[in-house]
Amino acid sequence: MLRPIISAMLFFLAGGFAKAQIVTSDPSDKMQWFEDAKLGIFIHWGIYSVDGVDESWSFHNRKMSYADYMKQLNGFTAKNYNPEAWAQLIKSSGARYAVITTKHHDGIALWDTKTNNMSTAKLTPARRDVITPFFAALRREGIKAGAYFSLLDWSHQDYPGFLKDSSRYQIKNDSARWKRYLTFYQTQIKELSQQFNPDLFWFDGDWEHSAAEWQAKKAREMILAHNPNAIINGRLAGYGDYATPEQNFPITRPTLQPWELCMTSNNNWGYHPDDSAYKTPYELITIFADVISNGGNLLFDIGPREDGWIPTQQVHLLNELGKWTQKHESAIFGTKAGLSPGHFYGPSTLSKDSNTLFLFVPAHNTGKLVIKGLYNTIKSISVIGTDQLLTHKIVGKISWSPVPGLVYIDDIPEKVTDEYMTVLEVKLDGAIKLYQGKGGLTE
Ligand code: FHN
């Protein structure tokens, strides 16, 4: 069976980079692991982590000169890099996949590309390809491996863009030069395919050109010719498999499924020692719950230092997240999007057979919870990770009306609440059935 072909679908998200759509004719189940994964860890690592400046954007935005930016090549050592420890940390967070920057917009490849000398292997004291050992470590841990790749390359002499508000040339005036660039980036994609066979290609930087200019269809086909199961994110100018909002939480549930929200742990993607605006574990966990409640995945970013050390605050966030995901595994993995807004004030998920509803309640909230429009009979309500059962009552059910009453769940004893988010398991008498009428008694 082939996945349906849905082409030219765009959705726009306030404040985020705008496009995503689905175009696919690949094996029908190739998205399954991704839909079940729920959590991925994003890693922005590159020479920008030497001085702790904005990844690539610092020279592009003229915050520093290109020459000074490139001096960071001399400081990228990877001397404390322990890919196995990274993979274990990722695993312990509960994440099922990881995505690492194999090349950001600055054009410095983290693998030993044969296309030019712009790599950590050729130009930095690290003198090595840092991607191979990481992918191997991830796979040993059973974690899917994703390759972030910037289509645009502000360092490449044949790429039109360089510094903000300027360009090397216009494609229409020098198509031969642009063709050389296309060959270059497509050769790099082939290298990534052949050397690493990524489970996920995570493109970025498509916004500077159209799908036709990028030859996006060809790039997609090249990847799938090598591995028909490879997943491609929604930033290949219209030729990806899923939507990728960034930083901004979609206010309305994305209609295009699956989707993935990528988000920083502080306010930067890469290592930025001057940025202490870290999310708290509570914020991270409530955001994560909100994402899965809406049927998405969270791709949560960390930015290691040039030597491979991961900032303590980021390790702390992943550890706390890990404790929570482990405790609430049944409510997260193997579930699907929960109740649509209006039925419950908060995130929720549903077991795949829809017989169990999971309700996510912010820390220390012991107050009465209400479910609206539930036709089912509740068999039991328990607090995950404890032996606590909760009682409930139905309010306002008229015997002769088909409209269900309101379900009031009795207080959660303080002693069984979770430090971050308590999760209730609500077992139903069958697949969930919801009333979505306007409130009339005979509807
Ligand atoms: O410009 C990049 C940015 O540096 C970062 O890599 C993020 C991650 O999604 N993507 C781009 C902006 O959309």
Q: What does this molecule look like?
A:
The protein is of the alpha/beta class and 443 residues long. It has two domains: 320 residues, Glycosidases (TIM Barrel, Alpha-Beta Barrel); 93 residues, Golgi alpha-mannosidase II (Immunoglobulin-like, Sandwich), CATH 2.60.40.1180. The strands form three sheets. The chain has a seven-stranded parallel β-sheet. Strand 3, helix 8 and strand 4 form a beta-alpha-beta unit. Helix 5 packs across helix 7. The protein is elongated and about 75 Å long. The N terminus is likely disordered. The structure holds ligand FHN. Ligand FHN binds next to loops.
Concise account of the structure shown:
This protein is α/β, with parallel strands linked by helices and 443 residues long.
The hetero compounds bound to this protein are: ligand FHN
Taking strands numbered 1, 2, ... along the chain, how are they ordered across the largest sheet? 5-4-3-2-1-7-6
Describe the sheet with the most strands. 7 strands, parallel
Q: In CATH, what is the class of the largest domain?
A: Alpha Beta
Terminal CA distance: 39 Å
Provide mean pLDDT, rounded: 93
In the CATH scheme, what's the topology name of the largest domain?
TIM Barrel
